[in-house]
Amino acid sequence: MDALVRLPPPEVYEQEYRHWPWGRLMEIVAGMVAKNAPKAGRVVDYMCGTGYLLHEISKQRADLSLEGCSLNEDHVAYGRKQYSGIRLWAGDAMKFAPSQCPDIVLCTAGIHHLPRADQPAFIQKVAAELLRGGTFIVGEEVISPYTDENTRLKSVVELGGAILKEVMNSHAPPIMLTEVLEVMKNDIEEREFKLDLGTLESLIQPVFTLKHKEFVWPTKFKTYGDVIFVCERN
């Protein structure tokens, strides 16, 4: 199941897209779906939060059938009020069944909310739901490779510190800095389960063909940051 960590109120959650580097990744993913989804296609977003990404897609492609699943009931309730035409469900990603077989499945900043033991099973679940040739778009914050608990802590602090610097430079309100620190705390205490790039690829590639990889942030990708994988069902 997607781990239930403390998330900010939905209004604050959506502010993050304006001040965190992550907002650019969401913009790119929305554009990818709008450009490549088949006419009247079906899109499912796992661990969708408020449904913000699906809403951004709907503004570009009104013909698409859009539904999302999130464990956070407050975020789902907010999205249902704000975004008409999008079906949002409150529930466990490991148990949710799309109403129809999707053409595209999205999961942005979702895999790292799953306990490590559930991450491969979730990817297998998505593969089982997609038709052969269907598309799985993954957006993730990856950390630098690590070998033990000490280097893992260094990796999550490295990522969190870089995000904090970006948010400060965006002249964000103080609540945004607080939220960065909250995420860092989740990472340090392993209530979120971020992966390094190689490990994430090794989870995806047994059941999907990696068609496109795009580093979104930092501009000159180091060993951490925001990355998009566009995958095709084998």
Please describe what this structure looks like:
With 234 residues, this protein is an alpha/beta fold. It has a single domain (10-233), classed as 3-Layer(aba) Sandwich (Rossmann fold). It has helices spanning 10-19, 22-36, 52-60, 73-82, 119-129, 149-169, 174-188, 197-204, and strands at 42-46, 65-70, 87-90, 104-108, 135-142, 208-217, 225-233. Strands 3-2-1-4-5-7-6 form a 7-stranded mixed sheet, with helices on both faces. Strand 1, helix 3 and strand 2 (65-70) form a beta-alpha-beta unit. Helix 1 (10-19) crosses helix 2 (22-36). It is globular and about 45 Å long. The mean pLDDT is 95.
The top-level CATH class is: Alpha Beta
- Intertermini distance: 25 Å
**Which value, in Å, is the CA radius of gyration?**
17 Å
Number of helices in the DSSP assignment: 8
In terms of DSSP E residues, the strand content is 15-25%
CATH architecture: 3-Layer(aba) Sandwich
CATH topology: Rossmann fold
Question: Could you say how many structural domains there are in total?
Answer: 1
Could you name the CATH homologous superfamily?
Vaccinia Virus protein VP39
The description of the largest β-sheet is: 7 strands, mixed
Biggest sheet strand order reads 3-2-1-4-5-7-6
Structural class: alpha/beta
* H and E string: HHEHEHEEHEHHHEE
Can you count the beta strands? 7
What general form does the structure show? globular
- Helical residue percent? 40-55%
Mean pLDDT: 95
Quick recap:
This protein has helices at residues 10-19, 22-36, 52-60, 73-82, 119-129, 149-169, 174-188, 197-204; strands spanning 42-46, 65-70, 87-90, 104-108, 135-142, 208-217, 225-233. It has 234 residues and is α/β, with parallel strands linked by helices.
